[in-house]
Predict the structure.
Amino acid sequence: MTINEKQQEIIDEFAEVDDWMERYAMIIDLGNQLPEIDPALKTPAHLIEGCQSRVWLDAELRDGKVYYTADSDAIIVKGIISLLISVLDGHTPDEILDSDLHFIDAIGLGEHLSPTRSNGLLAMVKQMRLYALAFKAKEDAKS
């Protein structure tokens, strides 16, 4: 599934629910489904700067595709990082770097977050793109 197809799937799922309390519940459920991160990765080096809550993010490149793992100490934030992972996970660095994450605005997430959470969301996206950029640079150096 492409990044845009995954985004459309999320947009469609959220379109079925008008109430933002229910949407928050959906986001929390997504966070609860996020696979456990290796406790060894819960280090300051993996913390995302700019988030009010603590968010740990790691990525690895396997067979030319980026795979993310993450965790947060805040249930809503854990759900948000889970949403981002569901969209970007398993794609090439170029696909990630070229993506326009329009689903964030399409589901109204940006406008329903506090300013500090919105900043945290941007910081999460930035860090995920930085991992993709680093993997791309490493691949380009090999060729």
